Amino acid sequence: MNIEIVILGSGTAVPTVDRGAAGYLLIVDNEKVMFDCGPGSTRKLAQAGFELIDLDRVCISHFHPDHVCDLTAILFGSRIPNYSRTKPLELVGPVGLKQHYEKLLNIFGNWLISKDYELIITELHPSNTFAIVEYQHYKLMAQMVDHSYPAFGYRVETPTGIITYSGDTDYCEGIISLCENADIAVLECSTPDERKIHGHLTPSLAGQIAQKAKVKHLVLSHFYPECQMVDLTSQCRKFYNGQITLAKDLMRFPLRVF
What is the arrangement of strands in the sheet containing 243-246, beginning at the earlier edge strand? Predict the structure, then answer.
């Protein structure tokens, strides 16, 4: 089974030359799942060698603009003549996703309505326990994390390994549960330890989560500009003794079970 993660955007709401807003592509065999779609992430999808019609589903962690703005681009691009899709597209996210879609229609009208494909919207209800959706090749699990309300982190369980994506979160039991025994955990790391802001992780906090959850490979991402001049790895290493990678846009991580 081919399983791979592609970093489409390792940055935040503050644009930098080399980091776009949040976006991550998970490939499980022939399925393509996009986690969050911040502004510019659809262009990074093309740079990585994929098209909008390749996407099977888009999973939204929460409704902040740097995680969801390119949903409009996905819906609009999926109905352009000669490029339009025919296979279904599923949108997955917290309660409020249907309302978000309807508000987009109020702004853009019929230009976002699917013409030749079925649009499926799956809302997951906020809870302290896992929300689980079963697909052919994997199990998608979501759980509330400590950010805005509602905000989810995601866990993907496959026959050959486990991948976790935090979305935006502070240190909480929800993200620890999602990361338990993960082979790869992509955790947000918005600021250095000395610049901690509420609702977000620092390298040390991400390291504590990964160590407690027994993560094999920790990928730090979602960096604000102040991270550029700090040794994030050393701060994380104070608490975590596994493999650490600092994400960069268009990095690819094949799943290798340790």
Answer: 131-134, 139-144, 152-158, 161-165, 184-188, 217-221, 243-246
Eight-class DSSP state of 20: P
Q: Walk me through the domains of the chain, giving residue ranges and CATH numbers.
A: 3-254 (3.60.15.10)
Neighbours of 242 (CB within 10 A): 16
135 contacts 159 by C-beta, under 8 angstroms: no
- Measured distance CA(64)–CA(51) in Å, rounded: 24
Please state the length of the chain.
258
Q: What is the largest distance, in Å, between two alpha-carbon atoms of the chain?
A: 53
9 secondary structure, DSSP code: E
Q: How far apart are CA 137 and CA 1, in angstroms?
A: 9
Q: SS3 helix, strand, coil % of the chain, rounded to 5?
A: 25, 30, 45
pTM score, whole prediction: 0.96
Map residue 73 onto helix, strand or coil: helix
Cβ-contact 164, 143 below 8 angstroms: no
Mean pLDDT by 10 residues, the chain (258 residues): 95 94 96 98 97 97 98 95 90 97 97 94 86 94 95 96 98 97 98 97 98 98 96 98 98 79
Residue 200 contacts residue 191 (beta carbons within 8 Å): yes
